[in-house]
Amino acid sequence: MEITEVRIFPKEGKDKKLKAYAAVTFDNAFVVRNIKVIEGGKGLFVAMPSRKLKEACPNCGYTNAVKSKFCNECGKVLPASIKARTQDFGQDETERQSDHRDIAHPITPEFRDYLQKKVLTAHQSDSSGTSSNGRTREFGSRYSGSNPDVPTIDRKDK
């Protein structure tokens, strides 16, 4: 699988952890948008697109953000712990850290490293003004994972 294009969309404002959004195109055929470039304690890293988890109010059925104490529609107190929703995460509610879930994400650590390297390279090029065509950065290298169970895709129509 080849990353054929990375588009960087810088976020304005100083002292913000979110530095940019990226859109990554794979094999000129599939795009993943809203990948975030974030400044962490150990430097820049890439966060995959995610959505906020929601759950229905048992009283009116309105969907509220997970961890809400009251329903935004009817105002009733929401149950503090529902076994069904926490089993989906494989942990109890006190251990769960996030109320977001990735929409798309790499399966292997090798592919995560490959994706992060390409996005951060494009971000640094965009930040330094060295990108050859504005906010778009094209790549030609292919990902060749070390896992023999994951097939590589060779497109014959190129």
Q: Can you give me a brief rundown of this structure?
A:
The protein is α+β, with helices and mostly antiparallel strands and 158 residues long. The chain folds into two domains: 3-49 and 103-137, Stage V sporulation protein G (Arylsulfatase, C-terminal domain), CATH 3.30.1120; 50-102, no CATH class. It contains two helices and nine strands, in the order E-E-E-E-E-E-E-H-E-H-E.
Sequence-ordered SSE layout with sheet pairings:
Blueprint lengths: L2 E8 L7 E9 L3 E11 L2 E5 L2 E3 L1 E3 L6 E3 L17 H5 L12 E3 L6 H20 L7 E2 L21
Antiparallel strand pairs: 1-2, 1-9, 2-3, 3-4, 5-8, 6-7
Write up this protein:
The protein is α+β, with helices and mostly antiparallel strands and 158 residues long. It folds into 2 domains: 3-49 and 103-137, Arylsulfatase, C-terminal domain; 50-102, no CATH class. Helix content is 16%, strand content 30%. It is built from 2 helices and 9 strands, in the order E-E-E-E-E-E-E-H-E-H-E. The chain has helices at 83-87, 109-128; strands spanning 3-10, 18-26, 30-40, 43-47, 50-52, 54-56, 63-65, 100-102, 136-137. Strands 4-3-2-1-9 form a 5-stranded antiparallel beta sheet, with helices on one face. The longest helix has 20 residues, at 109-128. It starts with a strand and ends in a 21-residue tail after the last strand.
- The overall pLDDT, averaged over residues, is 76
Bin the strand percentage.
25-35%
Strand order of the largest sheet: 4-3-2-1-9
Order of helices and strands: EEEEEEEHEHE
Structurally, the number of domains stands at 2
Uncertain segments of ≥5 residues (pLDDT<50)? Answer: 82-97, 131-138, 140-158
Helix percent band: 10-25%
